[in-house]
Amino acid sequence: MSETGDAPNTPRPANDAEDQAADAVDAPNAEAAAAALAERVNELEAEAQSLKDERLRALAEAENARRRAQKDREEASRYGAAGLARDVVSVADNLARALAAMPETGDKTIAKLAEGVAMVEQELANTLERHGVKAVGAVGDAFDHNTCQAVFEVETAEMAPGTVAQVMQRGYMLHDRLLRPAMVGVSKAPASAAGEGETPERGGKVDETA
After folding, report:
1. DSSP the chain
2. Residue 11 pLDDT exceeds 60
3. How would residue 208 be classed by pLDDT, with cut points 50, 70 and 90?
4. Contacts of 189 (CB under 8 A, 6+ apart)
5. 207 pLDDT tier (thresholds 50, 70, 90)
6. What is the pLDDT of residue 107?
7. Which pLDDT score is estimated for 16?
8. What is the separation of C-alpha 44 from the centre of its chain, rounded to a whole number of angstroms?
């Protein structure tokens, strides 16, 4: 090799100034890309949260609809026969009237007829009760405005005031709902009893030894 030949190629030393300039140019681009990425992440998170909320609302609405349908089915099963029950209790009323109209005689035929009507009435009452229909407002019960309708008052000392003294028409409940109110007469204290124990009129003499 000639001493005067070209020297072998050597690596070019790095130019620190050029690298710093390139970094200065790339920095804003990196920040912008990071900001855009962060914004996109936020958008996706918001979208995911919105979809989750919509899903939860849809599930809640479906559950509410299921519960409403279940309640409607239960009420239809429990109270759907209210119209029929009202008609049937009218039959019970007629049986009770027939029994009340039976004369009390020694006639065996009439006695057997009364016994048969009473059996039919009892069987009808048992059937109604099996289906949730029961009578309310019997004589001797305390008057309840939720199940009874007062038609008149009865002055009597044999019952406490506010007691059902007479039943004009029996009332009925269908499970926990009033099917028909009872038409009753309500007892009240006789006028003579109500006047007892009143303060003597002014000017009268009170016997203090009594």
Report:
1. --TTSPPPP-PPPP-HHHHHHHHHHHHHHHHHHHHHHHHHHHHHHHHHHHHHHHHHHHHHHHHHHHHHHHHHHHHHHHHTTHHHHHHHHHHHHHHHHHHHHS---S-HHHHHHHHHHHHHHHHHHHHHHHTTEEEE--TTSBP-TTTEEEEEEEE-SSS-TTBEEEEEE-EEEETTEEEE-EEEEEEE--HHHHHTTPPPPTTPPP-TT-
2. no
3. very low
4. 155, 157, 161
5. very low
6. 84
7. 58
8. 43
Structure tokens belonging to residue 76? 């239809």
pTM of the predicted structure, to 2 decimals: 0.60
Average pLDDT over residues 118-126: 93
Q: How far apart are CA 74 and CA 103, in angstroms?
A: 46
**Residue at token pair 């008149």:** 152
The answer regarding whether domain 82-195 maps to CATH 3.60.21.10 reads no
- Sorted by where each begins, the domain ranges of the chain are 25-79, 82-195
pLDDT of 13-51, one tens digit each?
545 555 555 555 566 788 888 888 888 899 999 999 999
Locus of tokens 């009473």: 118
Q: What does the alpha-carbon distance between residue 139 and residue 165 come to, in Å, rounded to a whole number?
A: 5
